[in-house]
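Design job #97: recover the sequence.
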C-alpha cells in the first residue's frame, strides 16, 4: 500500500512537472505598421487587447513592433483551461493579460499614429511554434479623410526621423502646372542650380525614389522637372547607405543623399513627359522629347534630345537618345534596364597660367590652346532585384563603349627659372570599352537579428589611345636669354591600358542578449572583404627619323603589369536603443602590391599591414535633434602612371617617370555632425566637422635637370611621404518667416589643407586656407517668387620654398532670380549675377550677367511659348583655379553666353484625378 501511494504521488508530481515545463514556452507576436505606400511608420502606438486587459508598445524607426507572450496552463486535467501571459517587449513593465481558455486564444491589435487614421485587426494566437507574424497593418493618412471637417489641424511642415528629413508638401505653395522642382526650391536646405542639379546641405542628391521604390533611371535632375508637384504628399531627404544596409541594418561608408517622393493616394500611375523645340540667335537650338508610361511597378520611358545651349566651357553640340524600362515579375522579383547613346562635339579655346615652385625659384607657364573633340558613347545597364521578409537578392550588369577623336594646337611660353617655348600639335584617338557587374544577397534567419550578407563585384575596363604629336621647342641660353636652338620632334604614342578588378564581401551579424527585447538591441558584426585589382599597361613610343619614317624608341617604351590585393577583416560591436546607437570595432588590412616589366628581371613586391579602429555613434536626444560621429580608414594603391619607371614624354616640358618602389597609402577620416529641426516653424540647423590624415601618400618630386644645351627642364618622379592632412567645418541655418512666405538661409565653411610635396628632392610644404560665407533670402508670394543670395570666398595658398607672399584669391558673388505671375497664363522672370574676382593672374573683367524671359501658357497650361534672353550685356567668362602638389593652375575658357531663344513646349501629363486639386494651393501653418 505504501508503494502504491508512493507511485501515485510520483505520477501526479510528474504530470505537474510536465505542465510546469510547458508553462515556460514563449511565442513572439510581431508585425509592422506601414502607410499606404508601404513605408514604415515610426512611433505609432500599438495595443494588444483581450477582454479587459491591454498591453502597449510603440513601433521602432522602421515601423516594427513585437510582443513577447508566455503560455501557461492552470489545470492538471485533460480539459485544462489555458492562460496566456504577455509582455510588450518595448515596455519596461511586466504587465500581463489572460485570454479565454480556448485552443486558439483571440486577441485584438489596435494601432494609432499621429497624422493617420486608426486601424485594428483580430487574430487567433497559435497554440504551437515560438513566433507568429501579423500581416502588415496599413494606416491611411488622416488628411485625406478630412474633406468635410471645417476646422483643420495645423500642418507640421517637416519632421526629423533618424536618417530622414521629411517635408509635408501641404505646408508649401503649389501652383497649377508646377513640377516637383518648383516645390523643392521652397524647402529649407535644398538648392537647385541653373543646370537643374539638386543639393541638400551642400551634398549632391544622387538618387530618386517614388513611394520608396526605384523610379525609372532614378535620375533626380531628369524627373523632378517632369513630375507634377500636385501629386506629391511628402518629400523625404534620406541619408542612404544602400539597399543591402537597409535590409540588414548594418551601415558602412558615407551615405548618399536620396530623394523619396511619397505620393497622394492612387497617384502611383500615369503618363508624363514633355516635348520642346527652341531656336535662337548665334545658331542656338534645342529640341527634345521625354515620354514615360508609369503603372506603379511597370515603367517604360523614352527620350531624345539635340542641343547646343550648354553654357559650359567651349561651344558644345550634343545629341542623345535612349530608353528605360522597369517591371515586376511575380510577387517579389523586379527587373530593370536602360540604354543611352550620346554624341558630343566641343570646340574649346583656353588660356592657362601655371606657377610651379622649386628650390631655385618659380617657373611660370603661360599657354593658349585651341581644341576640337568629337565623342560617341554607348551606355547600358540591366538589373534584377528580389526582396521578401527573409531574403534580399540584387544583381546588375553595366557596360559602356566610348570613342573619341580630338585635335589640339597649344602654344606655351615658360619664364622664370626656365626659359623655353613650345608649340604642340596633337591628334588622338581613344577607344574605351568597359563592363562591370555586381551581385548582392542577404538573409534573415529564424533567430531575430541574425543575418548574413554577401556581395561580389567584377569589372573589366579598357582604354586604348594613339597620339600623334608634333612638337617645336625653342631653347634659350640661361645666361643671355638668347634663342640657341629650335628643335622639331614628331612622335607617335600608342598607349594600351586594361584594368580588371574583383571584390568579394561577407558580413555575419549575430544578436547578443535577449533578441526579443526591443528596448535594447546588441549585436556583433564579423566582416571580410577581399579586393583584387590587376592592371596591364603598354606605352610604345615611336619617333619620326630623318627618312620620315617612325621607329621604335625602346628607352621610352614599356610594358608593365601590376596587381594590388587587400584582405580586410573586421569585428564590430553594435548597440541600439531608441535614442543612442553606436558601433565600435577594429579592422586589420594586409595588402600586397606586385609588379613586373616585360624584358626586365627585376620585379616589384610590396607588402603592408594596417590596423584601424572603426566607430559610428548616432545620438538622438529628441525627435528634433541628432548627433553623429563616424570614423573610418582605407588604403589606396598607387596609379599605374606613378609606378612605371619609363619616361612619359607626352609633355616635353615636364617628363614623368614613375617609381616602382611606391607603397599603398592609408587614409584616416573622421566626421562629426549635428542636426536640429524645429517641426513647429520649419527651421533647420546643421553643423559639420571633418578631418583626414594620410599615411604614405604618393606625392610628386619635380626636379630640374640639365639638357644637352645646358638648359634646364622639369622631370617629375614620385615617392611616399606622410604629413598630409586637412580639416574643415561648415554650417547651415535656415529660418522660415511669416508662414514660409520668406526664408532666410545662412551658410559657411572653413577648410585648411596641409600638403607635402618635393621640389629638387627638398621637402615642400603647401598650406591652403579656404573660407566661404553665404546669405540668401527666398520670398514666395502669390504673385511673386524671389531668390536672392550673396556669397564670399577667400582662398590662400603658400609654399615653404616660395620666396613670395601667399597667393590670395577673393571672390564675391551676388545672384538674383525672380519670377512674376502677371496673369494665370502669363509669367515673366529675370536673373542677374555679379562676380567680383580679386587676385587672379589671368586678366579678366568682373562680369555682370543679366537674363530674363516671358512665358505664355495655353490649353489649360499644357502648352507654352517662351522667349528668353541670356547674358544681355555679353560679359560672361569662365575662370577657375586648381592646386596640385607644388603647382597652381588658373584657366579661362571661351563660351557663348549671349543669345536669345524662342521655345515651344508641350507637357505630356495625365494622372488619375488630375495633377492638382485647384489653381493654387497655399501651404497652411
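Job complete. Output follows.
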Amino acid at each position: 500500500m505504501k508503494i502504491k501511494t508512493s507511485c501515485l504521488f510520483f505520477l501526479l508530481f510528474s504530470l505537474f512537472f510536465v505542465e510546469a515545463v510547458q508553462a515556460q514556452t514563449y511565442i513572439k507576436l510581431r508585425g509592422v505598421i506601414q502607410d499606404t505606400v508601404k513605408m514604415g511608420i515610426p512611433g505609432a502606438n500599438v495595443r494588444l487587447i483581450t477582454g479587459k486587459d491591454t498591453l502597449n508598445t510603440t513601433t521602432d524607426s522602421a515601423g516594427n513592433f513585437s510582443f513577447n507572450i508566455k503560455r501557461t496552463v492552470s489545470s492538471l486535467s485533460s480539459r485544462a483551461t489555458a492562460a496566456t501571459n504577455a509582455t510588450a517587449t518595448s515596455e519596461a513593465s511586466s504587465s500581463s493579460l489572460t485570454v479565454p481558455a480556448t485552443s486558439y486564444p483571440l486577441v485584438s491589435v489596435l494601432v494609432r499614429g499621429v497624422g493617420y487614421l486608426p486601424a485594428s485587426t483580430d487574430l487567433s494566437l497559435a497554440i504551437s511554434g515560438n513566433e507568429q507574424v501579423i500581416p502588415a497593418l496599413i494606416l491611411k493618412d488622416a488628411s485625406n479623410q478630412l474633406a468635410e471637417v471645417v476646422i483643420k489641424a495645423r500642418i507640421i511642415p517637416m519632421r526629423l526621423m533618424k536618417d530622414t528629413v521629411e517635408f509635408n508638401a501641404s505646408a508649401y505653395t503649389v501652383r497649377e502646372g508646377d513640377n516637383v522642382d518648383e516645390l523643392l526650391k521652397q524647402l529649407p536646405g535644398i538648392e537647385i542650380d541653373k543646370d537643374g542639379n539638386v543639393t541638400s546641405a551642400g551634398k549632391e542628391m544622387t538618387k530618386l525614389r517614388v513611394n520608396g521604390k526605384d523610379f525609372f533611371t532614378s535620375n533626380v535632375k531628369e524627373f523632378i522637372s517632369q513630375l507634377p508637384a500636385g501629386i506629391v504628399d511628402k518629400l523625404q531627404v534620406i541619408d542612404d547607405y544602400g539597399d543591402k544596409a537597409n535590409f540588414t541594418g548594418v551601415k558602412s561608408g558615407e551615405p548618399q543623399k536620396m530623394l523619396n517622393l511619397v505620393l497622394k493616394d492612387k497617384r502611383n500611375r500615369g503618363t508624363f513627359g514633355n516635348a520642346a523645340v527652341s531656336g535662337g540667335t548665334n545658331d542656338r537650338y534645342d529640341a527634345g522629347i521625354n515620354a514615360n508610361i508609369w503603372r506603379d511597378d511597370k515603367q517604360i520611358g523614352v527620350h531624345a534630345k539635340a542641343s547646343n545651349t550648354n553654357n559650359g566651357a567651349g561651344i558644345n553640340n550634343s545629341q542623345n537618345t535612349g530608353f528605360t524600362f522597369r517591371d515586376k515579375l511575380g510577387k517579389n522579383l523586379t527587373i530593370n534596364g536602360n540604354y543611352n547613346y550620346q554624341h558630343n562635339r566641343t570646340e574649346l579655346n583656353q588660356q592657362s597660367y601655371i606657377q610651379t615652385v622649386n628650390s631655385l625659384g618659380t617657373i611660370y607657364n603661360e599657354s593658349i590652346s585651341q581644341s576640337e573633340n568629337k565623342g560617341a558613347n554607348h551606355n547600358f545597364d540591366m538589373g534584377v532585384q528580389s526582396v521578401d521578409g527573409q531574403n534580399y537578392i540584387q544583381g546588375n550588369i553595366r557596360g559602356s563603349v566610348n570613342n573619341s577623336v580630338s585635335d589640339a594646337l597649344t602654344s606655351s611660353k615658360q619664364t622664370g627659372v626656365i626659359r623655353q617655348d613650345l608649340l604642340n600639335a596633337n591628334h588622338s584617338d581613344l577607344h574605351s570599352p568597359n563592363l562591370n557587374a555586381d551581385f548582392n544577397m542577404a538573409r534573415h534567419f529564424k533567430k531575430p537579428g541574425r543575418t548574413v550578407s554577401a556581395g561580389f563585384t567584377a569589372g573589366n575596363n579598357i582604354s586604348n589611345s594613339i597620339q600623334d604629336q608634333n612638337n617645336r621647342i625653342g631653347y634659350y641660353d640661361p645666361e643671355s636669354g638668347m634663342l640657341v636652338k629650335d628643335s622639331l620632334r614628331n612622335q607617335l604614342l600608342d598607349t594600351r591600358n586594361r584594368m580588371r578588378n574583383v571584390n568579394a564581401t561577407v558580413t555575419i551579424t549575430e544578436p547578443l542578449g535577449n533578441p526579443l527585447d526591443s528596448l535594447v538591441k546588441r549585436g556583433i558584426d564579423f566582416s571580410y572583404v577581399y579586393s583584387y585589382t590587376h592592371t596591364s599597361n603598354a606605352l610604345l613610343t615611336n619617333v619620326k627619323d630623318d627618312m620620315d619614317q617612325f621607329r621604335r624608341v625602346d628607352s621610352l617604351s614599356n610594358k608593365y603589369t601590376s596587381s594590388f590585393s587587400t584582405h580586410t577583416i573586421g569585428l564590430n560591436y553594435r548597440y541600439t536603443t531608441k535614442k543612442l546607437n553606436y558601433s565600435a570595432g577594429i579592422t586589420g588590412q594586409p595588402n600586397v602590391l606586385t609588379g613586373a616589366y616585360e624584358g626586365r628581371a627585376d620585379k616589384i613586391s610590396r607588402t603592408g599591414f594596417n590596423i584601424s579602429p572603426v566607430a559610428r555613434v548616432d545620438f538622438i536626444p529628441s525627435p528634433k535633434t541628432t548627433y553623429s560621429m563616424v570614423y573610418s580608414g582605407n588604403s589606396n594603391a598607387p596609379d599605374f602612371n606613378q609606378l612605371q619607371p619609363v619616361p612619359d614624354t607626352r609633355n616635353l616640358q615636364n617628363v614623368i617617370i614613375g617609381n616602382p618602389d611606391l607603397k599603398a597609402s592609408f587614409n584616416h577620416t573622421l566626421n562629426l555632425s549635428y542636426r536640429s529641426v524645429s517641426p513647429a516653424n520649419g527651421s533647420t540647423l546643421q553643423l559639420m566637422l571633418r578631418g583626414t590624415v594620410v599615411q604614405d601618400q604618393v606625392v610628386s618630386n619635380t626636379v630640374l635637370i640639365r639638357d644637352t644645351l645646358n638648359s634646364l627642364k622639369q622631370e617629375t618622379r614620385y615617392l611616399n611621404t606622410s604629413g598630409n592632412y586637412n580639416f574643415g567645418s561648415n554650417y547651415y541655418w535656415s529660418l522660415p518667416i511669416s508662414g514660409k512666405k520668406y526664408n532666410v538661409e545662412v551658410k559657411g565653411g572653413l577648410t585648411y589643407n596641409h600638403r607635402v610635396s618635393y621640389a629638387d628632392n627638398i621637402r615642400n610644404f603647401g598650406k591652403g586656407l579656404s573660407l566661404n560665407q553665404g546669405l540668401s533670402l527666398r520670398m514666395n508670394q502669390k504673385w511673386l517668387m524671389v531668390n536672392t543670395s550673396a556669397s564670399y570666398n577667400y582662398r590662400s595658398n603658400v609654399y615653404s620654398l616660395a620666396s613670395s607672399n601667399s597667393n590670395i584669391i577673393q571672390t564675391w558673388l551676388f545672384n538674383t532670380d525672380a519670377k512674376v505671375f502677371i496673369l494665370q497664363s502669363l509669367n515673366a522672370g529675370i536673373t542677374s549675377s555679379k562676380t567680383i574676382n580679386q587676385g587672379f593672374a589671368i586678366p579678366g573683367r568682373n562680369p555682370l550677367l543679366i537674363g530674363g524671359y516671358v512665358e505664355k501658357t495655353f490649353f489649360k497650361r499644357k502648352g507654352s511659348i517662351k522667349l528668353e534672353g541670356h547674358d544681355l550685356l555679353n560679359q560672361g567668362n569662365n575662370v577657375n583655379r586648381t592646386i596640385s602638389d607644388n603647382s597652381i593652375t588658373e584657366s579661362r575658357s571661351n563660351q557663348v553666353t549671349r543669345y536669345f531663344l524662342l521655345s515651344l513646349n508641350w507637357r505630356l501629363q495625365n494622372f488619375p484625378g488630375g495633377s492638382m486639386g485647384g489653381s493654387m494651393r497655399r501651404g497652411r501653418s
